[in-house]
Design a protein that fits this description.
Layout: H1 6-27, H2 41-45, E1 50-55, E2 61-66, E3 81-84, E4 90-93, H3 136-139, E5 163-165, E6 168-171, H4 178-182, H5 197-200, E7 206-213, E8 224-228, H6 231-234, E9 245-250, E10 264-277, E11 280-293
Parallel strand pairs: 6-7, 9-11
Antiparallel strand pairs: 1-2, 3-4, 5-6, 7-8, 7-10, 8-9, 10-11
Length: 294
């Protein structure tokens, strides 16, 4: 039988002793013994405590219990959860890439594009707006109209005589102009009662007066028309005053064609037939049994 040196045997004995000591410390200590207890229905029916892994030093992990009711790692965090930092400020935890953050209950997301904030173009307006303070009557005036200040009526021409033209008196529109004769602006409703004798005396007289024909509805066979003072009235250059026009009724059997843009004479019987309605003059002078002398 071969004999082993004492040194080898000594090393072997030391190694076995260290192994036995390590086994006893790591695997045979009282900490590894299972704990036995009586069955408790109330305690065993509660769910087991959840644990979370907390990183330890050198990459090791340690499990720590999580109190009941606390969120676990299986539940997703809200899209933007604010966490209090040591300095008192909050920082948002972004949602994972590729996920859609849940919307709070009761809120809606509008997909309508934002409205344009550009200023709309201004509405086109008239190049000549009505000045402030202009009355409705002035707003409807023609371009040739002149706004006149009201005047106090008074007699300006106390006497007047007329020349004869055949069997008629030659009268002009100036002779029956109430602004020139009586300083009337505007013409009041009681104007005929204020006529001087020489003007009132024309009522029923045969007169001849020169003027223009206001546009008519037909070009021929005309029996009634407005005999007006000047061509501006004929061409709608200005609104005629009541004394600038005479309602002309031709004698029975008499007709005329429309005369455009040139003066002519009319012979007829002068009548004062005032018609005043709703603050406006519709008629003052009339020529009856008239005839156009062209």
């Amino acid at each position: 039988m071969r004999a082993f040196p004492l040194s080898i045997l000594g090393h072997t004995a030391i190694s076995l002793g260290l192994f036995s000591l390590t086994f006893m410390v790591c695997g045979c200590g009282p900490e590894t013994q299972p704990e036995y207890r009586e069955f408790d229905a109330a305690a065993d029916s509660s769910p087991p405590e959840s644990t979370s892994e907390i990183p330890g030093p050198s990459g090791s992990t340690k499990r720590s219990p999580i109190p009941p009711g606390s969120p676990t790692n299986s539940e997703p965090l809200p899209a933007s959860t604010s966490m209090q930092s040591p300095t008192g400020t909050t920082s948002a935890i972004p949602a994972p890439a590729g996920t859609t953050p849940p919307m709070p209950t009761g809120t809606t997301t509008s997909l309508t594009p934002p409205q344009s904030t550009s200023t709309p173009p201004p509405t086109a307006t008239s190049s000549s707006p009505t000045p402030a303070g202009t009355s409705s009557a002035q707003a409807g005036m023609l371009p040739g109209d002149v706004v006149m200040e009201p005047r106090e009526p008074k007699l300006l021409i106390p006497e007047k005589s007329f020349s004869k033209d055949g069997n008629a008196l030659r009268v002009t529109f100036d002779d029956i102009d109430l602004l020139k004769v009586l300083n009337m602006e505007p013409v009041p409703e009681e104007a005929p009662t204020m006529f001087p004798d020489w003007l009132a005396g024309l009522d029923g007289k045969r007169v001849v007066i020169r003027g223009f024909m206001f546009p008519t509805l037909t070009q021929s066979g005309i029996t009634y028309f407005q005999h007006v003072r000047d061509n501006e009235i004929c061409c709608f250059g200005r609104t005629p005053k009541v004394y600038d026009r005479i309602s002309t009724i031709l004698a029975p059997g008499e007709t005329t064609n429309y005369i455009q843009g040139r003066p002519y004479d009319v012979i007829g019987t002068m009548r004062f037939d005032p018609i005043y309605e709703d603050g406006e003059w519709l008629q003052l002078y009339v020529l009856e049994d008239a005839k156009v002398v062209d």
